[in-house]
Amino acid sequence: MITFYAYGAPNPHKVSIALLELGLKHEINVVEIWKGAGQTPEFLALNPNGKVPVIVDHDTGLTISESNAILLYLAEKTGKLLPTDPKLRQRALELLFFQASGVGPMFGQRAWFTLFAQEKVPYAIIRYRYEAERLTGVIEKLLQDGKPWFLGDDYSIVDIAFMGWIWTAVQMHFPIDDYPKLKAWFDRMLTRDSVKQGLVTPNPLPTFGAPATAD
Ligand SMILES: N[C@@H](CCC(=O)N[C@@H](CS)C(=O)NCC(=O)O)C(=O)O
């Protein structure tokens, strides 16, 4: 049994999708992150960084934070969604790190400065829009011609890791149609029941207005 500390946001949604895809028994504990619930002593004892997702695996006694570390853990626990071939496995790790260290933070800053910041900061809007769009171009190149998934023929946790922020970016009205391979992958992801359900578990993203421009 797994306890999943979650909220409807890009990183927890990855774990929602993985738990459903893998059919792992779990209970959900909703953490109201925008009401300060991530900063309580009880939650900080689970994750000193005060953010979701976190899982507690009662079978092993392990508490794990960081969405892509959780995806890796769940894949290794079940022996699914991660290739065993050493070259492909290494590629999976590379892409998981790229997603977590590049795409997630830059998409997050773009969202912050174009949708949430109280003050309009043109330099930050330009900087993070440019960087997020550059990274989207990199993702477009990573999707190989004629292959359905990031690692080729097999669906994996790498696809799940990218979906969290790509889904969020689309909900935030950032363009995806300019990236045909990414758009085709995105539509393919949305044919999977675990993805459709995971993206509204424990709750969907809010409705976003139009992102700000620098002028
Ligand atoms: N690198 C972390 C990022 C986690 C993260 O930023 N979580 C957000 C939701 S997507 C959160 O809990 N935000 C609440 C806050 O910043 O107080 C991961 O991949 O899990």
TrEMBL record:
SUPFAM superfamilies: GST C-terminal domain-like (SSF47616), Thioredoxin-like (SSF52833). Pfam families: GST_C, GST_N_2. Coiled coil: none annotated. Residues 85-208 form the GST C-terminal domain. Residues 1-82 form the GST N-terminal domain. One of its GO terms (molecular function) is transferase activity. The keyword Transmembrane does not apply. Keywords: Transferase. It comes from the Bacteria. This is Glutathione S-transferase family protein. The lineage of its organism: Bacteria, Pseudomonadati, Pseudomonadota, Betaproteobacteria, Burkholderiales.
